Input
Amino acid sequence: MPELPEVETVRRGLESWVVGRQISAVEVLHPRAIRRHVPGVSDFRNALIGRRVVGACRRGKYLWLPLDSGDAVLAHLGMSGQLLMLEPSAPAGPHLRVRIAFDDDGPELRFVDQRTFGGLSVSIGGADLPPEIAHIARDIFDDRFDEAAFHTALRRRRTGLKRALLDQSLISGVGNIYADEALWRAKLHYARATETMRRPDTTRLLDGVRSVMASALEQGGTSFDSLYVNVNGESGYFDRSLAVYGRRGEPCPRCGTPIRRESFMNRSSYFCPHCQPRPRHPHW
DNA sequence: CGCAGGCCCTGGTAGC
DNA sequence: TGCTACCAGGGCCTGC
Output
């Protein structure tokens, strides 16, 4: 669920809550939460304890906290991960995976994750950009995102448009929800063959991605349930503004045609069959 | 190398 | 009521 707007909301929260503070204790309650940290739990703890957090960064759906050692805490929320700021005395919920406490005895950082797709790791020398995520493309809000290069790379692909949009090495931060919403805004079908995309199509697509994510960010992200929350445990409101996602059978906000749901890539795709007509030569 | 599909995981819900 | 089946899906891995 957490896509760029949700992850950015969390990043902003971390920036105001943990930057400048020194880590005093680390507790790993579920080893799977740090499975990407190959050297293991004690190495993870040793790399953090005594270090100061000097920033809060994001690329796509990845977050990292640069440390004064030059390393970084790299985090991915997966489907259900939460990074919460809570008083050390706050009770541990059933899905608490990692606790990071600070030497000022103020609110601690807790990684809570029901479905355990997310996780934390220490990235050696990763303060500027963790090498583990060097293959992740820049996202639409990155000043150095290159629209022309994206268009060229897109046209080189031999696949369907939504598949390409979800490929984090082409453009990052887009997940299933905002992919459907962006395609609807751009009036493009999810199975449009990427090699048939013309420059105006790509411009419309990126405008759709940018505008839907900017709106979602303003509203603190999208929440369907209590799974996605900011660092204070609060949900966003953008789910009220979704045009197609999760709205099978409901009228398209633009033309009134009932929204259709199709199974694609083992997940749901929602679209308006009138505004987003099936291409003559779709790529499934 | 590019692309497609399987797998990981848990809680909620639909259906019998 | 109590069981099973299915659904949500991001990213890594494998195989073609």
Q: What stands out?
A: Residues 19 and 278 of chain A are 48 Å apart (CA to CA). Residues 1-3, 61, 76-80, 115, 117-118, 166, 168, 175-176, 224, 227, 265-268 of chain A lie near DNA strand C (CB under 10 Å from a C1').
